[in-house]
Amino acid sequence: MRKKDTVRIALAAFIALAMASGVGLAQSAMARSGAAGGTSCGRVGTWFGQGDFGITWMAVDTPGVNATVGQFVLDWVLIDPTLGGFFPTSAVVTGATGVWEKVNQSKYKYTWVAYGLDAAGQPVVVARTSGFATMAGCNAVNLTYTLELFAPQDDIWTDEPSFGALTGTAVEKRMPVVVVSQ
Length: 182
Hints:
8-stranded antiparallel barrel
């Protein structure tokens, strides 16, 4: 029972991060357009995120083949690679790589993948996170997510998660341009 709870907490942390990435993408585009309330903002930009389990990250969202799809990468600022001790041999978590797609004027869906690696660089766990990023203006996003944890040998696109799934929330804020002096 305790291990299952730990996995759920770990999953929530990963999901929060993923969701934050998706939110950041939407906020960035909105900020570029100057729109409020997510009505005409896009996802392209740089974001700072925080998940509901204390995980923090920075994300960069880029456009895809058109204005309704794109890619993103996120780098963890603060994350426990063992996911609360459930994966004690995990020494580091890779940055997450993902994709986003516009659902409507203020909502985006996203998916990202990251790996927990041992000290020798071998995969210990694979995290797949999917969710929705809802714009709260052009400079803020609210994320919801489902974090799923897979064994390295699993097919993360067709198999059920080996270690379970967890849902949660996160937020992101768009990075502003700050001019110190001219």
